[in-house]
Write a structure and sequence with these properties.
single chain; Isopropylmalate Dehydrogenase; 2 domains; 10-stranded mixed beta sheet; two-stranded antiparallel sheet; 39% helix; 19% strand; binds adenosine-5'-triphosphate; binds magnesium ion; manganese; D-malate dehydrogenase (decarboxylating) (NAD+) activity; NAD binding
């Protein structure tokens, strides 16, 4: 049976890297005999907003909910539409309405890519950040008092539910279970945040009882960010609340070189709703329209999508092809952000050809 994929390219370089993501997926589908059926949607971008006064049609949920996955480019064109409108009107709606409570980002230093951390080689950095994506610090509960006066007070609450915390922890422990090192690191700040973070720590200890073969440690977020930079080789699976996960899931990929190659997944693990796969980078208006954006973030996100759909071998082959093309280091193929003189297309084609062989 065909796997139905909804494709939303979005804005800026999203529309340029998406064709390369699809090219790579086509190559993998052919080689591994996977039936993928793509349906493109022309909403969820700023031009749609300028025409309709909203980012998506009112029935977007109905239109998308039965797909097996969403393959997504990037959204935003700040000169035309403020970021909070474009983001809240599309991507954040998907994350919330489709209960994509896991945000997953691999942080892996690839061959031929220079890490900003001096002396780091591929193999030194290879871990996942698992971010809680639906609650925690990003609640809208709170308010203002005495606004505009000297006595002004603002409050915003953190919300942690047992279900919400346990489900992200379970996902992270399960992931650690599949990794050779079987190691899980929890981000906390229970020395300063005295109610929610000790609760998080408690749930980690409770969950750990069900995973006796996983070695578990925890770091306060301040020293943890320092250790990402000083000792990235310590980490295997790192799990954090919405805010801490947000910070770590930008810092982790940053340690692996260019933002152009980092992939991500927003996952509803039960499969009740479609999960969404997108590059970490945004729409990059500064380079949009030039055909020079690095397509690897999009292609790698496609690989994550195949793994999610149950095709681990095909997914691994896509990542291996990315590694091979990077290792070859052909200047005329690679994009400018990784030291080449090529284009989105030359790099996309080289990877698709490598997947195909
Ligand atoms: P967002 O707010 O959506 O995260 P942003 O505008 O803050 O987006 P990006 O769009 O990711 O950030 O761009 C940040 C910088 O990285 C820009 O200078 C951009 O040109 C560069 N960049 C982003 N993606 C790529 C890519 N795929 N290839 C090359 N350079 C990229
Ligand atoms: Mg931005």
């Amino acid at each position: 049976m065909a796997h139905r994929i909804a494709v939303i390219a979005g804005d800026g370089i999203g529309t340029e890297v998406m064709p390369e993501g699809l090219r790579a997926l086509d190559a993998a589908a052919k080689r591994f005999d996977i039936d993928l059926e793509f349906t493109t949607f022309e909403f969820g971008n700023c031009d749609y907003y300028l025409e309709h006064g909203k980012m998506m049609p009112d029935d977007w949920f109905e239109q998308l909910k039965d797909f097996d996955a969403l393959f997504y480019g990037a959204v935003g064109w700040p000169d035309k539409v403020p970021d909070h409108i474009s983001l809240w009107g599309s991507l954040l709606q998907f994350r919330r309405q489709f209960d994509q409570y896991i945000n997953l980002r691999p942080c892996k230093l690839m061959p031929g890519i220079k890490s900003p951390l001096a002396g780091r080689e591929p193999g030194d950095i290879d871990f996942f950040v698992v971010r809680e994506n639906t609650e925690g610090e990003y609640s809208s509960i709170g308010g203002k008092m005495f606004e505009g006066t000297e006595r002004e007070i603002v409050v915003q609450e953190t919300v942690m539910s047992r279900t919400g915390v346990d489900r992200v922890l379970k996902y992270a422990f399960d992931l650690a279970q599949t990794r050779p090192r079987k190691k899980l690191t929890s981000a906390t700040k229970s020395n300063g945040i005295s109610i929610t973070m000790p609760y998080w720590d408690e749930r980690v200890l409770e969950m750990a009882k069900q995973y006796p073969d996983i070695s578990v440690d925890k770091f306060h977020i301040d020293i943890l960010t320092a250790n990402f930079v000083l000792h990235p080789d310590w980490f295997d699976v790192v799990v954090g609340s919405n805010l801490f996960g947000d910070i770590l899931s930008d810092l982790g990929p940053a340690c692996t070189g260019t933002i152009g190659i980092a992939p991500s997944a927003n996952i509803n693990p039960e499969g009740k709703f479609p999960s969404l796969f997108e590059p970490v980078h945004g729409s990059a208006p500064d380079i949009a329209g030039k055909g020079i954006a690095n397509p690897i973030g999009q292609i790698w996100s496609g690989a994550m999508m195949l793994e999610h759909l149950g095709y681990k071998e095909a997914s691994d082959a896509m990542v291996a092809a990315i590694e091979e093309v990077l290792a070859e280091g052909n200047q005329s193929v690679l994009t400018g952000d990784i030291g080449g003189k090529g284009t989105t297309k030359t790099l996309g084609e080289a990877i698709a050809d490598t997947i195909a062989k």
